[in-house]
Structure formats: C-alpha cells, structure tokens
Amino acid sequence: MKLAVSTGVLVVTLLSTSLAQQFEVASVKPSQPRNSDGVIMVKAGGDPALQEYTNMSLRSLILDAYLVKDYQLSGPDWMQETLFDITARLPEGASRKEIPAMMQKLLAGRFGLKVHRETKELPVYELVVAKGGIKTYPPDKKDEPKLQPDGTYTMTGGLSGPGIVTATGTETTAQDLAELLSHSADRPVLDKTGLTGKYQFKMGWNAASGASLSDALEEQLGLKLQPAKAAIEMIVVDHVLQTPTAN
Q1: For 125-171, what is each residue's pLDDT tens digit?
Q2: Which of 168, 175, 154 is nearest to 69 (CA)?
Q3: Using CA atoms, how far apart are residues 14 and 3, in angstroms rounded to an integer?
Q4: Domain for residue 147, yes or no?
Q5: What distance in Å separates the CA atoms of residue 13 and residue 66, rounded to the nearest whole number?
Q6: What is the DSSP letter of 175?
Q7: What is the domain range of residue 46?
Q8: H helix runs in 25-173, sequence order
Q9: What is the pTM of this model?
C-alpha cells in the first residue's frame, strides 16, 4: 500500500483547502469536567445543518479534519488531554463532503493550527493470510470466532486499544480489520491479505493472556501479522494553541 503523495497532488490539496467555504458560525469551548465515575461520552454529528462535537480531544479533531489515522499524526502529547465541544453551522448549500476542509480552516483560525505533510518510512505490520488459509465458519457454528464470506462494512460491536481486541464484525473487509487492529498493535497494520470479499467475524485477544496478537489472529481467523516497513504520509503539527481564541 503506497501512501506517499506526489508534490503535484499536495499543491492541489492545499489550494482546494484555501478556497474552501467556512462555517457560518462556530462555537468552540472546553468540555465540562468529566463525571465522578470518570466516564466520558464522546459524540460527533447531529443536525444535518450543523457539525457538532462533544468531549473531543484536539488530536481527534485534527484527525477528523485531515481524514488520517492516529498513527499518521505527529504533534504534542497534550493534544489528547484537553477536550472541546464544538458547534458549527454549515453555509447554505454546502455539502457535508466539504466539512473536513471547513474544519481545517476552523482549527487554523481558532487554534492557530499550522501543519505540513511529509512521508516517513515507519515500522508496520502487514496483515497476511497464514499458511493454513483463512478459517471460515462451519455452517452449524455461527458463533465461532472465524471468518465467513458475507455480503458493506458493519462493525456490530467491538473494543480495541493497546493490548486488547474484542470485536464482532459483519460485512467487514480485510482493510477494515487491519484498521481495527492498528489500535491494538504497537505499530500500524496494513492489509496485505489480497482478500477482496466481505466477511463476518468474531475475535478476542488480550495481551495479558501471554499470546501475541499475531498468534490469536492465526488461531482464530487464519491470518497473521508480519513485521515490515512502509512509506506513510504524515500530518506534522508545526504550531497549535492550547487555548482557542474567543467565540
């Protein structure tokens, strides 16, 4: 998977952002303190004429604006710590496809965000089919944690983070699975399976069990992770304010 972007494409991207519309009205404020139980409810979306975020970190807002994965963003650690609520109204006639470019403008205007793009060679895992092939559901045992060819991507439930995966998916591509695993592995996971279908699956793994993620994948789904290096396009934060300018 080649993620490098040519200079010509980059110029077009920056130009299109500079010419993009901007939100008519935008409110940006720090989120309320979390509940006593430590639970934080994160929300994005809402009224079709609005773009709303609740309890979103600045890091997550930048990821959303630039349409990149977490491992593609390089910036200060504190961007993950401070949470914000944003309500922004789309200009009349604007398409929701324009929201990322408008969010880039909003972040530049309110947080002084300045970024640049660069390509770095990073250690990654390649998701590949194990020697024995993928493990499919037996027709009479639909609850087993194996793949089954199915019919658009739906992750019906799941938890992924450092050292843990608990997930159920239907109509899921290998690319979708690789993105899920990237949250749990110690490096990005790229789909190199060659699988073009859509699958349903169930999978569970916890590093505390002593088994590696690759071992769990091979045992449960007939897939495995192999170390590699790849050129990854990065968004690098050059400047950003911890406190946004006033509404």
Answers
A1: 999 999 989 987 554 555 555 665 543 334 444 556 678 888 887 77
A2: 175
A3: 17
A4: yes
A5: 11
A6: H
A7: 7-120+233-239
A8: 58-66, 99-111
A9: 0.71
